[in-house]
């Protein structure tokens, strides 16, 4: 697939905030996305390990045919992580590996789902949002843990599947606590870019099965990164 290099991937941390703020002005989460416009959906995840005190990352992208929910393409990458973990700057750690994997895809998926946040972020630039500019496609962030932004209050939804509560900051809904399966922990969703909150919610629910609270494409990518890590450990040992 074609990648849009909107900025270099090797950046001085002093520039992180200015890049996020500049891109945030270009984010559009007002567009509905309908199922008849989607044929393929990709799940993205990154896992970590260590090697002689250095961090190693494993990225996997699993592309599904929406009609059959079968995997039609996979791409992956592995490499050293050069950016230390800093809350709010996950994209700068993970984008080099994600972009390297995405370059290997033969076709461009209609939608990407990330294990991480979209606009549910202090500067509305979670990994799903930031990556959307490189990928040029709609994205959704589906996080397993809650990132508190500003003075937002976290209210648990009811136990039934599809129950939800909004995450509101300064009168704006920037995320949603969504119960994707009855009686299990919720996920924290937010549109990344080129898609609105309602479409993000509807599609996330549609793509979630009974095996996990995560949408199937994200779950498959998550499992694949763990397999990659285990395989590398066997080789390394």
Automatic annotation (TrEMBL):
DNA repair enzyme involved in the repair of deaminated bases. Selectively cleaves double-stranded DNA at the second phosphodiester bond 3' to a deoxyinosine leaving behind the intact lesion on the nicked DNA. Its EC number is 3.1.21.7. Gene3D superfamilies: archaeoglobus fulgidus dsm 4304 superfamily. Belongs to the endonuclease V family. The record marks 85 as: Interaction with target DNA. It catalyses: Endonucleolytic cleavage at apurinic or apyrimidinic sites to products with a 5'-phosphate. This is Endonuclease V. It is an enzyme of class 3 (hydrolase). The keyword Nucleotide-binding does not apply. The lineage of its organism: Bacteria, Bacillati, Bacillota, Bacilli, Bacillales. Mg(2+) binds at residues 45, 115. Its cofactor is Mg(2+). One of its GO terms (molecular function) is endonuclease activity. Its main location: cytoplasm. It is found in: Cytoplasm. Keywords: Cytoplasm, DNA damage, DNA repair, Endonuclease, Hydrolase, Magnesium, Metal-binding, Nuclease.
